[in-house]
Amino acid sequence: MNLADFFLPVEASVFSHPLETSQWGQYIQIFRNRFPAWKRKHLALLGLPNASSGQYPADTVRQQLYQFQKGKGAYLIVDLGNLKAQASEEATQEVLRQVCEALWQHQVVPLIVGGNHAHDYAQFMAFACQPEKMNLVCVDARIDVSSSELLPPSERHLRQILTQKPSHLFNFHHLGHQPHLNHPSAREMLGAFYYEAYSAGQIRQDIAEMEPILRQAHMLSIDLRAVRMQDAPAHPQASLLGLSAEEICQLCWFAGQNEEMASLGIYELHPEWDERHKTASLVALMLWYFTEGYYQRVRVKDFHSQAFMKYVVSDLDHPSQMVFYKHRTTQKWWMEVPYPPREGNTPAEAMIVPCSYRDYQAAGQGEVPDRWINTYAKLP
Question: What residue numbers bound the domain in which 193 lies?
Answer without folding.
Answer: 3-294
